[in-house]
Design brief:
Number of helices: 4
Structural class: mainly alpha
Length: 85
């Protein structure tokens, strides 16, 4: 389960529209419901907000968060090197 403190940090990075990106990653990994259908945005939001538990979705949310943090770090480093000169 994603804890409140973790969720607050992630919200700052995700802004809006994270559930669509999570859904795309889940589809790429062929992670589906027991009925074989893709997870919906509302269920992904429920997992993110702690109303439901799903390890595959939580792992994908954390994976997306890590990717976004790394991309932000890389962008900051690039800006620093460009404007340093």
């Amino acid at each position: 389960m994603i804890k409140t403190a973790e969720r607050k940090k992630m919200k700052k990075v995700f802004k809006k529209g994270y559930s669509k990106e999570v859904q795309q990653k889940l589809n790429e990994k062929n992670v589906v419901t027991q009925k074989g259908t893709p997870y919906g945005f509302s269920f992904i939001n429920h997992v993110f907000n702690g109303r439901n538990e799903n390890i595959a979705i939580e792992a994908t949310i954390l994976e997306l968060y890590t990717e976004k943090v790394e991309a932000t770090k890389k962008l900051k480093e690039e800006k620093k090197s460009i404007f340093k000169a």
